[in-house]
Write a structure and sequence with these properties.
Order of helices and strands: EEEHEHEEEHEHEHEHHEEEHHH
Number of strands: 13
Shape: globular
Strand content: 15-25%
CATH architecture: 3-Layer(aba) Sandwich
CATH topology: UDP-N-acetylmuramoyl-L-alanine:D-glutamate ligase
Radius of gyration: 18 Å
Helix content: 25-40%
CATH superfamily: Ribokinase
Strand order of the largest sheet: 5-4-1-8-9-10-11-12-13
Largest sheet: 9 strands, mixed
Distance between the termini: 34 Å
């Protein structure tokens, strides 16, 4: 059996709007464009699948127009959908992108959060497989408890990937204490690393996180690339690539998806990080959330750098 990525995080719909500026509280603004696209975990799934990794969507999805759009998009990417749809519809996120390519999110959760322990137990990750989850799935609630229980029962030869996401500060400490020691790949932004550690210095934050995770820590620092910390080693800076960004939405997802695919193919963490940096660089030159490159596009990009 080939190595797989089982994605148990939520896939939602992104309503992406380009605005001149995010309005102040009580104010308003007009969008020059608006598109409804699969987002959330879909961005990671697409990045990993396009990079050559076999991916299965093992999260929840809904009944309704949003759920239909999610399933159609997953099929187009060659991704297997494991569970049947839930009665409610899939949730959505409003993503406002300003002229600097910065994005601001407002999210309404839906059926994608309904993933009980019974469904998780039906999954059969094998030796060498990756399981991916995200901080949104660890927010307080019954389903988070189910996920943490299931994670605790994974065999040691299954590799767990966690992206704590911007909501990391709302994840209960007791949940983090149960999950982090089991994580094989922790991929997060510099802001999220500071939230987790209380340390603003990136190198110190990466070092502190490596003491809590028995695996690789990838601290993403945007255009500067990332810091990679392996167990027992000091953080290594892997430089990014200079490009003209038009939309940073989904860059972190492209990074973690391609990083995971590279690890699955046998790359070292530092080599995987270079490929992930390249994927993120390509992604920000394209409008939209799911803009990760194909393996061929990634190879061509790296061949000229």
């Amino acid at each position: 059996m080939p190595v797989r990525l089982l994605h148990v995080g939520p896939v939602i719909i992104d309503l992406v709007m380009e605005v001149d500026g995010v309005p102040a509280p009580g104010g308003g603004s007009f969008a020059s464009s608006a598109r409804s696209l699969p987002g959330g975990g879909f961005n990671v799934i697409v990045a990993a699948a396009r990079a050559g990794l076999a991916v299965e969507y093992a999260g929840a999805h809904g009944t309704g127009p949003h759920g239909d759009l999610v399933r159609s998009a997953l099929r187009e990417e060659g991704v297997k959908v494991v569970h049947p749809p839930r009665p409610d519809d899939t949730g959505f996120c409003v993503a406002m992108v300003d002229p600097s390519a910065e994005r601001t999110f407002v999210t309404h959760l839906g059926a994608e959060m309904d993933l009980p322990l019974s469904d998780l137990k039906d999954l059969r990750p094998g030796a060498g497989d990756f399981v991916y989850t995200v901080g949104y799935s660890l927010l307080p609630g019954e389903r988070a408890n189910d996920l943490v229980t299931w994670i605790g029962g994974l065999t040691p030869d299954v590799r767990l990937v966690l992206d704590p996401a911007p909501v990391v500060g709302r994840i209960p400490q007791v949940t983090l204490e149960r999950v982090l020691p089991r994580v094989d790949v922790l991929s997060l932004s510099a802001v999220e690393a500071t939230t987790l550690t209380g340390v603003s210095d990136r190198t110190e934050a990466a070092t502190a996180l490596s003491e809590r995770v028995d695996g690789v820590v990838v601290l993403r620092i945007g255009a500067e690339g990332c810091l990679v910390t392996e167990p027992g080693s000091a953080p290594v800076h892997v430089p990014g690539f200079e490009v003209d960004a038009v939309d940073t939405n989904g860059a972190g997802d492209a990074h973690v998806g391609v990083f995971t695919a590279a690890l699955a193919s046998g790359s070292s963490p530092v080599s995987a990080a270079r490929r992930a940096n390249a994927a993120a660089a390509i992604a920000v030159t394209r409008p939209g959330p799911a803009t990760a490159p194909t393996s061929q596009e990634l190879a061509e990009f790296l061949a000229h750098r």
